[in-house]
Amino acid sequence: MRSPSALVLALLGLAAVTQAEDAPSQTLSIKVLLDERSTKCTLVTPLQTTQLHRGVKTLGDVFVQTKVRQNRVNVEEFKTLPRESQEQVWLEIFGAREEPIINELTARCPGGVVQAGPVDQEASTLAASPTIKKIVDSGDPANRIDVVFMGDGYTSSESSKLFSDMQRLTDDMFAGETFAQYLPLFNVWAVHQPSTESGIGVNGKAKNTAFGLYRDGTELRGVYTSKPSEARRVCALVGTNACDFPSIIGNDAYYGGLGGEFVISTSSPTSGTIVLRHEMGHNFGVVGEEYDGGQVYKGANSARSLSAITWKHWLTNPNNVREEKAALTYTNHMWYNLKGGAYKISFTASGSYKRWMGVFTISGAPKDSSISITLDGKPLAWKSSGLNDRSFYTYQNRTGGFTAGKHEIVVTGNGPFDGDIIQQLCSFDLNEYGDESTFMMDNEDAIGAYPTWDQSNTKTYRPNNERCLMRNMESTKFCSVCQENMWLKFFSRVQAIDNVTLSTDNKVATVNAIPLAQLRKDSDPFKQKFPALAAQEKYTVTWLKSGVEQTQFKDSFVANLTNVTGGAAGSWTVRVKFSTPAVRKDSSNLLQSEKTFTVKA
């Protein structure tokens, strides 16, 4: 009689994958799309060997990663699967052996597993072979995190523009403050799959482009792909283990994007990086939102109660775990065309708060004369960003709160209204805060329990007020909790040691490690821009022969094995541990790596 795992594999048309019989030395994975209404799963990526996942610690372990499906392949999908729906979820199941993975798959997909529909073979056959360039080369994809930027809406004649755009976005992301410290862990690829038409679609209609990006309306909001199967196919062409984080970049000058299976953004010089780093933050850290009025709040940056906070080791006041005093007074993504007249925002204040901050996003307002704003009939100073692109505008009062009662903000568009980008009030959020004794604001890096409210007005807690870009999209920095979480997430897929090599005479062993800490190169942007922080990183190296530490080689990456009692012959282990002030708690010891080798007599 066939085992359940073999039966499921047969139904899926899969071949068994050979795995190691001892401790996990490889990782297998399978990827499906779960529809939680029907409990059916659609197979997306069959069971296969993948990059090592250190969350799989034993042969019987499985590790499941989930993401809400955000993409819609066409506007018809929005009718049955609204933008806010969380009913379809990507599941990637990792394990060391086939049977535990298939058992987990069966448990999570009680409605069964079906094959995905066929890829558009005609489109794939007719498409020219993509041009692939490795624009950041940090090492073998088997031990690196690989980001793949695939351009959409770039014609054959726009190849140089594509690679220039991808280089700019990469520099903004990894040479700047946001991800510079992690750069040695990353490879970054740029892919040009030529499109017939330039740009991306609007009003729910994709252009004739490689991946069919489109906006569902004209507002500067979500950007979707109508050809996800083609994007998967092209990303796989980059190479084995080289498509960890696929990203589609639309050839478009304005704000827009999406998270989920693919990080989608545009090449906009003014907002492309803003969207990209926020959406990458979701996917890299496997975390939800921090701003108010969102849908998904989960992961290392979210807690449902004060007792559930996982970042107590980062608290600015560790002896006083309290809720910071704040209120969400108003939030709305109204997407209102100001050509239709003034927009009135009415709210009621309790009078019990001492400070407030309001954040607008507005598009199509490139001049100071474009917009007028009043608060209770009195003008608020307006200074345009100078851009047609969707931009962020902040008003705040740190010395006084609203009086008790009703208040009104009026936003008036003054035209002109005939531009390519509509003059639109996209969103407005208004928060009220206690004074500094009840709400930490003056220290922008303070870590506490800051309340956040989702679209249903359910309260959760986030670690930081407004410094973290997972809340404040204009920020270029992650809070300390998110920074730590990313180190741990990245080191769950890579190891500090790339390999250990022996000289031809087996006398000298060399540890080749990812160039962090004292191995960072002088050209490393993190070392150049943040030398004091880089200097606090350290690799600790320990050599053991037959389980006994050889202290003469402590913190050395090269060891002359003959300088040991009994000579070089025997069983050796070298252990490398990375430490950084950005990580205070590593419960799974992910920042430590070791390799074992044998020198024959």
UniProtKB/TrEMBL annotation:
* Alphabetical UniProt keywords: Signal
Q: Name the domain of life this protein comes from.
A: Eukaryota
Q: Which Gene3D superfamilies match?
A: Collagenase (Catalytic Domain)
The residues forming the signal peptide are: 1-20
GO molecular function terms here?
A: metallopeptidase activity
Pfam families recorded for this chain? Answer: Peptidase_M64
* This protein's name: IgA peptidase M64-domain-containing protein
Q: Which organism is it from?
A: Pythium oligandrum
